[in-house]
Amino acid sequence: MHFTCFTLQDRLWTATQPLSETCDNPSGSYRKEQGTARPPHEAVSLASREEQRMDCRNEDNVSFIRLKTRDSCHALRLKKRSLAVNVRRQRLEEVVKKLKAPTTEEFTQLCLHLKKHKDLYALQKLRHALSSSEDNITVFLNCQGALYSLVTCLTGQDGALQREAACTLVNLALGNEKHCVEVCKQVGVYLVLHLANSNPDLQDPCAWCIGNLCGGNAEVCKLLGSQGMEEVLVKALTSHAPHVIQSAAYALTQYLATLQERIRPVSGAPLVRHLVDALSMTGGLPEVGWCLFMLSTDQEVCRLLLDQGIIGSAFNILEKLVNEQNLSVAAVTPIMRVLMNCAASVHGTAVEICYRNEQFVQVTRALLYSSTPHLQTETVHFLANVLNAASAESLTGQCVVEDLSLRPRLEPALRRALAAHFTLHQPEPQVSFSGVLR
C-alpha cells in the first residue's frame, strides 16, 4: 500500500483542521476511527501535525497575552488621565464665575466693596467688568472714592495688588475722551513714576495704560508729556524684558500718532537706535515696527533711521519672516512701509536697497506670491517706490536696475500679483493697528 508524505504546505493547511476531518492522499480518503490501526509512516505524520498545532496554540497564547497586557495598560492610562482631569474640573465652576460679567447692580456693589476691602479677587472682577462694557467705566468713575481706592492699591506695598491695579487701569483707560482725561489727572503721574522704575511687572501694564489713554486724546498726551513721559518711554525701550519694550513702543506709537508735531523733537539718535536694536532683538515685534513707521513719516527722521542701519535690520527680519510657515502680516506690514518711506524720502536709499540683490529679490518675490492680497498690494507699492527712485538716479540708478537683472526675476511675480488684484476686484485693504491709520 502506497502512502504519500505531507508537504509543508499541506501541513500548514491541515494544521488548522480537526483530526477527524478528511485528509487527501492519492489512494482515496479515510477518517480517523476509534480502534483503527494506523501505519507507522502515517502515525509519524499525525504526530508532527499535533506538535505543529500545539506550536500555533502557543503562539496564539503569547499574542493574546500581549494584547491583554497592552489593553490593560491603555485602560490604566485612561483611568489616571480621567482622575487628573476630574481634579481640575472641580474648579471649573469657580472659573466660570470669574468669567461671568456682573450686572450693573453687582458692579456697583463691587465698587463699594473696593472702598472697604482692597483684595485681589475684587480687583480681578473689576478688571473683567471694565473690559466688558463702557457703561461700567462710567459707573466706576461716578462711584465716589472708587478711583481713589484703586490709586491706593497702585501706590501700596503689596506687589500683587499693585500689578492687578495697573491692569485694571488698562481697561479703565478704554473709555471715552472725558473718561481718559479724568483718569489721567488722578493717575497719570503714578503711571509715569512706575514706568520709570526697573520693575518689569509694573512697567508693562503702566506703559500699556498710557498707550490707551493717549490714543486720540491730545489733552491727555500734553498732560503726560509735561510730566516727563517722553524720556521715560525712551528709557523703557532699553529694557531687557520684551513685553516691556512691546508696551513702551505701543504707548509711544499712540502718543506720536496723536501729537504728530512731536515726532521730530522726540526722534533723536538715542530713540532711533533703541528702536532699531529692539526690532532686531524681538524679531520684528509689530508694536516696534509701527513705532518705527510713525518716525519714518518725517523725512529728516528717515535720515536718522538710515544712519542707524534700518535697511540691513529690516531686510534680515523680513528674510526670516517670509521663510516661516505662518507669515505674520502684522509684523511684515510696518517694516515694508518703513522701507517704502525711506526709499522715497532719502536720495540714494533705493540704490542701496537694490544692491542687497539676493535679499531684495527673495523677499519681494515671496511677498508678491503671498496668498494675502494686502501683502501683495503693499509689496507692489514698495517695489514701485524703489524702482522709480532708483531709476531717477541720473548716474547709477538705471544702470543698477539693468545690471542686477531685476526685471526678468521679478516681472512674473509682479504680473501674477497685479492680475490677482484686478481679477478679484478687491478694494485696497485699510490696515489698522491700535488706532494708527495710514
UniProtKB/TrEMBL annotation:
Q: What residue spans carry the Basic and acidic residues bias annotation?
A: 30-41
Q: Where is there biased composition of kind Polar residues?
A: 19-28
Q: What is this protein called?
A: Uncharacterized protein
Q: Mind giving the lineage of the organism this protein is from?
A: Eukaryota, Metazoa, Ecdysozoa, Arthropoda, Crustacea
Which residue ranges are recorded for the region named Disordered?
19-50
Query: What organism does this protein naturally occur in?
Result: Scylla paramamosain (Mud crab)
PANTHER family in UniProt: TRANSMEMBRANE AND COILED-COIL DOMAIN-CONTAINING PROTEIN 6, TRANSMEMBRANE AND COILED-COIL DOMAIN-CONTAINING PROTEIN 6 TMCO6
Domain of life here?
A: Eukaryota
Q: Which SMART domains match?
A: ARM (SM00185)
